[in-house]
Task: inverse folding
């Protein structure tokens, strides 16, 4: 009996993207009037040319060109291009942080009247440990140096450039937490002379739980919709802690009307989100009023209610618009 076996071949996906573009680089352009002289001069500076500092996205950068390839990385036969962040830009933060940027490198082609564009699509983290990122093999030198190909023109002129697309710092964030343990999860409130109350609503003193101030509101003759037959009760956020626009606070708790005999309390669970539109929550028909004198009022005509908190959510957040990236365009033309 024979058997067939198959092997899965894996191929590495390149992250290098090349294309042509008509409009020039938006971050920095370096135009050279005599490439051969530049190549001679760079022999005195590790075969590289470093541009002046330019500002883009709020940070200072340099464009670095290796016209004969980056010998530090054992690259020969290619144009190598890099971007380096100025170390002082990193020291604007305490402690220094990472700055993320996407890099696009350009080489102008006079014949096509377009820019050859090459980039590694990954976003690069610039930090104290890694201040320079780039591409070792932008163009083969034999391709670049042949005037028929259009990269060198008018007696040795050429142009390089870069787009530095700085990822803005994270300014919009939200952290949601849930408080589940309390030193004292219960709040008790005694309403005296309940049967003699004239006001439509009774409110407790404010009390803190879960980082917020709360108030109990009780309607001894029923709230709207209770038909005067029900005890109405609500848990309300205090005026000083009303939810802000788009804020949400989750509450899990239990309401109780206590039996003065110490057992058979009437209780009901509350689970809801408090918002700007709903800063109070409860029941218009919590307990029939007819039941109160039978079971829940004590000998002194007092009614005792209680709420026990299980969970209260809290949100820390920051919604700050980041500064728009700067749009500098700088040209550097070395002297012949």
Result:
């Amino acid at each position: 009996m024979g058997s067939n076996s198959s092997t899965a071949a894996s191929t590495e996906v390149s992250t290098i993207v090349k294309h042509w573009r008509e409009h020039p680089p938006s971050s920095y352009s370096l135009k050279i009037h005599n490439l051969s002289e530049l190549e001679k001069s760079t022999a005195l500076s590790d075969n590289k040319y470093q541009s002046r500092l330019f500002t883009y996205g709020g940070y200072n950068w340099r464009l670095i060109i290796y016209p004969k390839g980056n010998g530090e990385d054992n690259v020969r036969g290619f144009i190598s291009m890099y971007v380096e962040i100025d170390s002082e830009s990193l020291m604007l933060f305490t402690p220094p942080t990472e700055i993320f940027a996407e890099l696009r490198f350009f080489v102008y082609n006079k014949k096509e009247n377009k820019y050859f564009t090459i980039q590694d699509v990954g976003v690069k983290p610039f930090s104290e440990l890694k201040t320079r990122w780039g591409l070792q093999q932008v163009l083969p030198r034999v391709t670049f140096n042949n005037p028929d190909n259009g990269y060198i023109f008018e007696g040795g002129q050429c142009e390089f450039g870069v787009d530095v697309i700085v990822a803005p710092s994270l300014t919009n964030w939200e952290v949601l937490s849930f408080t589940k343990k309390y030193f004292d999860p219960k709040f008790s409130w005694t309403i005296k002379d309940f049967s003699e109350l004239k006001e439509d609503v009774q409110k407790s003193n404010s009390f803190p739980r879960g980082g917020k101030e709360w108030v109990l509101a009780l309607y001894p003759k029923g709230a709207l919709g209770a038909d005067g037959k029900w005890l109405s009760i609500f848990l309300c956020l205090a005026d000083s802690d009303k939810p802000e626009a788009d804020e949400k606070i989750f509450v899990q708790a239990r309401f109780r009307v206590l039996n003065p005999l110490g057992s058979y309390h009437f209780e009901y669970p509350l689970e809801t989100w408090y918002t700007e539109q709903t800063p109070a929550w409860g029941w218009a028909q919590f307990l029939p009023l007819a039941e109160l004198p039978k079971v829940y009022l004590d000998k002194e005509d007092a009614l005792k209610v209680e709420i026990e908190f299980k969970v209260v959510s809290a949100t820390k957040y920051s919604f700050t618009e980041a500064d728009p990236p700067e749009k500098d365009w700088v040209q550097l033309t070395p002297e012949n």
About this structure: Confidence is low (pLDDT under 50) at residues 1-12, 322-336.
